[in-house]
DNA sequence: AAGTGGTCTAGACCACGTT
DNA sequence: ACGTGGTCTAGACCACTTC
């Protein structure tokens, strides 16, 4: 049940369909340049706007990517495998490694700490207040950059009462990261919940993640609970969906 | 005499931004109609294509939805909460309930069995062959429809050697579903792995899920392993991302 | 019947990247 | 310098929904 190509398929869909088939069948390889607006106008005898519309379809599907002044190219990607469960075991952060280390072995990674600050009241999203049970929190805002491209934005919220005076309130949280510090204070995270959504980014979000058109984001909201069942961290992550595969292993 | 539009931001982005703000601040409620092309042309003194482009931005972000002949409307969502782990415990399918029952309590659900067939060789995706270790498989293709809208497409693959002669090869798998039948044969699924990706759908996929523009899909590839560690099922699911929140609970 | 979005044309100027 | 995609205009006809 593909195309159906029935009587009245719009021209731009027809053109887009032909290009899509060519990409799928490898006639245009990842990274290769596709026929441009002028090529399509000549080849199919259509107006510029119609050729544009055809290329826009492929970009909206995430199959192609326009580079100003250069052309439209077939997209290529190589996703990061993020293991949702093993990566959070104490063996990971207990040994002085951050959980992120578990994800990528030998690629050029930079973790930028954008902000570490104490906030309260209206400045804290009400969903976070509800989960943590307090509006007095420390916030850590970070950006993860892989091979020069931002792949994830992250905001972690910690109850101020638990982390005041620890390195969690500083740029460098020390060996093992924030979870190791929480454990030293007797609030080791033991139970986790991750909620996953996906949607298209706003213009602003697309800018901050340098997303190509047609790329969704995945939103992960993680809550970490201590042994007593109290929430000790809420972490809102926004991932470039083209850069990630999430993996969860569990017993039935 | 064009333009030059005072600032660097294109007109259509300016118009889209104003509408986006209005939506965020509740001046247009979910389901409500937005100003149409003609309204925007008059209000901002622009050409039809420019007004269209502004509305296209909001649709691409998943914020708005066009209905032919009617107008452009603010989208509304009410996601299904899919619990990735508890839903697959033996208590669920062991008691004669299908795992799906765990997701939605009181909404109008229909599970359509599209196809049940034996396939082999080239007809089986090579990724599936690699995991199951055989190219002789039974396939079950289903569609899940909630409140009249398709929300998930699913294809399950089972090794033919394990399921031949069982109700898994028929339309109705019986109480507890396929997993209960596997358990009766001594191949109870015990370990699961789910891989999650997200991307924009192709035109064909959007049609089959009746997706609004600007809606990504989430792809879940689940592999079920028996106690001996052999793969007994591979399930490829494609979900309407606007209809789902995935949830995973686990210990550190 | 009126209004809506969907498609399409045939021009134009611009900012940008490659050459 | 040239070709590329990005933006924009001012028209047009169509299919569809709503009244």
UniProtKB/TrEMBL annotation, chains A, B:
GO terms for biological process: negative regulation of DNA-templated transcription. CDD domains: WHTH_GntR. One of its GO terms (molecular function) is DNA-binding transcription factor activity. Keywords: DNA-binding, Transcription, Transcription regulation. This is Transcriptional regulator, GntR family. Residues 9-77 form the HTH gntR-type domain. Signal peptide: none annotated. It comes from Actinacidiphila rubida.
């Amino acid at each position: 049940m593909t195309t159906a190509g029935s009587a009245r398929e719009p021209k731009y869909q027809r053109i887009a369909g032909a290009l899509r088939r060519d990409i799928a069948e490898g006639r245009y390889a990842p990274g290769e340049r596709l026929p441009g607006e002028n090529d399509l106008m000549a080849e199919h005898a259509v107006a510029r706007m119609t050729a544009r519309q055809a290329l826009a379809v492929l970009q909206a599907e995430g199959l192609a990517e326009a580079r100003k002044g250069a052309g439209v190219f077939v997209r290529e990607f190589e996703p990061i495998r993020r293991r949702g469960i093993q990566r959070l075991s104490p063996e990971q952060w207990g040994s002085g490694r951050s959980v992120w280390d578990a994800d990528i072995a030998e690629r050029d990674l930079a973790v930028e700490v954008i902000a570490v600050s104490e906030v309260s009241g209206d400045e804290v999203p009400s969903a976070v207040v509800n989960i943590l049970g307090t509006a007095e929190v420390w916030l850590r805002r970070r950006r993860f950059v892989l091979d020069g491209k931002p792949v994830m934005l992250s905001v972690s919220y910690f109850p101020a009462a638990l982390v005041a005076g620890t390195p969690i309130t500083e740029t460098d949280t020390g060996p093992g990261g924030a979870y190791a510090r929480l454990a030293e204070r007797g609030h080791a995270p033991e139970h986790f919940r991750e909620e996953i959504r996906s949607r298209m980014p706003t213009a602003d979000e697309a800018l901050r993640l340098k997303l190509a058109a047609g790329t969704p984001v995945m939103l992960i909201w993680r809550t970490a609970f201590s042994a007593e069942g109290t929430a000790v961290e809420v972490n809102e992550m926004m991932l470039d969906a083209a850069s990630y595969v999430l993996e969860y292993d569990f017993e039935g």
